[in-house]
Design goal:
The complex is a heterodimer of chains A (about 260) and B (about 290). By secondary structure, chain A is mostly helical. Helix content of chain A is about 80%, strand content about 0%. The chains are: A mainly alpha (about 260), B mainly alpha (about 290).
Chain lengths: ~260, ~290
């Protein structure tokens, strides 16, 4: 199989391409030299600077508030949306499904721009609240699509059978819908959380003074400030990411 | 029946209303404001005009628009060509290796997007590692720059969107029945012919979604050209941000956004068209099973 060898080589090269920049960042976070190309000896001084940077911690707090609120609200809206899209097939749902699908494909800058103009037109002061409103708007679609995908192979006769056997709607909600929707809800919520934590452009357009999130802070550090501190910050990010991935893997294998 | 309709409306309302208020209306506002006058303090003046669209008529803008389309197109082509072998390898590997590879591909992209772009900025920097290596080997002159040009933008765009191309291709290839290719080979079709005539049509849905999720976001790129492109690598997104944040001319920024909205809708229409022709292909093939 000559073809297999070729695809294998390309896969390895692509993985090297993916991890190359990240490795450089991690190595440089321990480099005492300011410039990436010179090795000035091992040092933890960038980590020290990172932990003493008040702006970073303030923006981290903002990021967590935004992500927490927008994930919770979008989980409720998205679940309702995914459920109705699955359950009903009327003209309303045709509009509904396009409104859910469009935010998934349009470039972020368009959503940021339109929300900014919307807030300006209504004379709403930009703040952490406008950021949260923006984040909910793009998160809803991701939750809805994930929940919808989970519902795809559900047999609604089960609900009718439960009703025939005298189950109250509360019991049906707790015993049938919740266990059924839980995996979709959790993965949709995780997706919303990740996207909210990572979003730069929509936040950039909708944030006011004092509502800087971590990505905005990173952007201004790259543009005007102290890049080596970013290396330290991203190494910590990576560590957390790997831990979460490991944990996720563990939970998944246990479930299987 | 009536109560069913009522509960449908009640349950659909929250998300429907939210998206109408925070997505549909704002998008309409963008289109409307692009036809308004601007005032010097960065607001919107009364009255209507086409002044917002004056940017689009300029020669320097034509260059930016051309670069935006060219770079998005090249990114899509490179991503599909590189993602294809990776997706084939993944789909044909053992399940354990499939899961491991999926995780390995996704993990780098769980780090902050800005940080990944910044990493490339360090690598391509004039004082950086890559420049030194290329200089020692003699591939680049002392003053040659890897940063702040179209090539740098293309490289980072490919880096950013490659996983988005790999995933849909992998999903559709995984469902593809490779015995079809074996059958074609047994019947005397060459490897290239079976690839083009059986494999590619079989995974066309995956290719279409891969193209969509790479091309459309690439059209709206802002951060990547901003950080590694310099003035010679500006794209439409940079021009929009510049009009809004630097010049504080909202109608001009809106007019450019309206252009981007049109550019986004266009591939959607093309996709509809492709779907229709696909349907025709299917019907045609069904009618003539003995010919091929």
């Amino acid at each position: 199989m000559k073809k297999n060898k070729f695809t294998f080589v390309i896969t390895v090269l692509v993985l090297l391409f993916f991890y190359f920049p990240i490795t450089i960042l991690v190595v440089n976070s321990f480099n005492s030299s300011r410039f990436g190309s010179i090795w000035g000896g091992f040092s933890l001084k960038w980590y020290d600077k990172l932990f003493n940077d008040r702006n970073i911690w303030q923006s981290l707090k903002n990021t967590l508030i935004v992500a927490g609120v927008s994930t919770s609200v979008s989980m409720i809206l998205g679940t309702l949306s995914g459920y109705t899209l699955f359950r009903y097939k009327s003209a309303i749902q045709k509009i509904h499904v396009s409104l859910i699908a469009l935010p998934l494909i349009i470039p972020d800058i368009l959503m940021g721009m339109s929300l900014l103009l919307f807030f300006i037109a209504l004379k709403i002061q930009l703040s952490l609240i406008t950021v949260i409103l923006g984040h909910i708007t793009f998160c809803v679609s991701y939750v809805a699509v994930t929940v919808l995908a989970r519902l795809q192979d559900f047999d609604f006769n089960v609900v009718e059978a439960a009703q025939d056997l005298g189950a109250s709607s509360g019991v049906i909600l707790r015993k049938i819908y919740l266990p059924l929707l839980a995996p979709g809800l959790i993965s949709g919520g995780m997706l919303a959380l990740t996207l909210s934590l990572d979003d730069f452009i929509i936040t950039f357009f909708t944030a006011g003074p004092g509502s800087s999130t971590l990505p905005l802070q990173i952007y201004s550090m790259i543009k005007f400030g102290t890049p080596p501190v970013i290396n330290a910050l991203s190494t910590l990010f990576l560590l957390i990411t790997f831990l979460i991935a490991l944990l996720y893997q563990r939970i998944n294998t246990r479930r299987q | 029946m009536k109560s069913k309709k009522l509960s449908e409306i009640r349950l659909s309302m929250p998300s429907l209303l939210w998206l109408i208020i925070f997505f549909m209306i704002p998008t309409i506002i963008v289109v409307i404001i692009s036809f308004r006058n601007s005032n010097p303090s960065g607001g919107i003046a009364p009255g209507w005009s086409l002044h917002g669209f004056s940017d689009i008529m300029s020669l320097s803008f034509a260059a930016i628009l051309w670069r935006t389309i060219k770079l998005s197109f090249l990114t899509t082509i490179v991503c599909i060509f590189v993602a294809m072998p990776v997706a084939i390898f993944m789909a044909r590997a053992e399940e354990k290796i499939q899961n491991l590879l999926l995780l390995l591909i996704v993990i780098p992209f769980w780090t902050n997007f800005l940080i990944r772009v910044y990493a490339w900025k360090i690598i391509l920097h004039p004082e950086g590692l890559l420049k030194k290596i290329l200089y020692t080997v003699g591939l680049i002159g002392e003053h040659g720059s890897l940063l702040y040009n179209e090539g740098a933008v293309l490289l980072v765009l490919v880096y950013t969107y490659l996983p988005f191309a790999i995933l849909p291709l992998y999903t559709s290839i995984e469902k593809f029945d490779f015995r079809l290719i074996e059958a074609a080979r047994d019947l005397g079709s060459g490897p290239f012919r079976s690839f083009m005539k059986i494999f590619l049509p079989g995974i066309s849905q995956g290719i279409i979604s891969a193209v969509m999720v790479v091309f459309i976001p690439a059209l709206g790129s802002y951060v990547i050209p901003d950080m590694v492109g310099g003035p010679g690598g500006e794209m439409l997104g940079n021009k929009i941000a510049q009009r809004v944040f630097t010049d504080r001319n909202l109608p001009k920024g809106s007019a450019l956004s309206t252009l981007l909205i049109l550019a986004v809708i266009l591939p959607g229409l093309i996709r509809l068209f492709i779907k229709k022709s696909n349907l025709k292909d299917v019907l045609f093939k069904r009618k003539t099973p003995g010919v091929q």
